[in-house]
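Q: Could you fold this chain for me?
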Amino acid sequence: MNEKYLPNRRKEPANPTAPEKTAKKSSFFSSLLKPVLLICVFSVFAVFAHDMVVQSPFFTIRQINIQGEHRVKKEEILALADLLGPANIFQVNLPVMEKRIASHPWIAAATVHRSLFSTLTISIEEQHPLAIVRIENFPDMIINRQGVPFKAYEPDMDQNVALPVITGLDLTSSDNFYHFEGPLFNAVLDLLQGKYQNNIRSIHGDELVGVTIQATGLFKPSLVPKTRALPICLGFDDYDRKLDKARQISQYIHANIPGKTLCAMDLFDTETVFVQTAPRETLPANIEKGV
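A: Sure. Below is the predicted structure, expressed as structure tokens.
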């Protein structure tokens, strides 16, 4: 039997690899392009919205509230904040504005925040001056309640500053920062934070004998010469109790030793107090011990 050879009619399936790869690439680029386009649209919208906000007169600052100012004038604060002219409330840089305001020597700290759409509130904390420190070869400086020097004393600019004057202290420098430290300086701070702080007019510090003050309002005017200040040596501690005793001594002298004025008092040791007195009309003085 003769068999007729028939050619194989089975066709090989077409290779799908190339079209599938093309479709996958197209799908990948399409999925990548959509978020990119979306980001671009949002970016354009954000820029447009930003320009609309910062340029709109609706957001112009119409009210500025300043809190905590006493010594510093409002005009000075507005000048430091660059708010003397019109400004957009969302265009101001709050941290930068706070630093500029706090650069004023009488301002210890400043905070700024926005309220509603057109109100800016500035809160400041002013320095609390404690005393004027006088040091040789340095300008006089004002220290705050923490004992930190914060500005040079300028008689013309600081005329309304009635502060006691401190002498006898030494400045310490570290990392280009000047400050005071040590037992003597701590003793001066303790004295100025006691109950007689408003009576003290000057303080002289000495490493050996502590602090010596000149004060007003502690004694009857008839007990203190009008032409001389009364120096009172107080040592290094226990100032309120020592000044209480000084007042008791002055009352005793006024009641029992008529015609005398006080010239000096030494209360370094309260067990042995030295009081220097003189007749009201004449000097030199005589010394009375153990009063």
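A (continued): Helices lie at 17-55, 74-80, 94-102, 183-192, 239-256.
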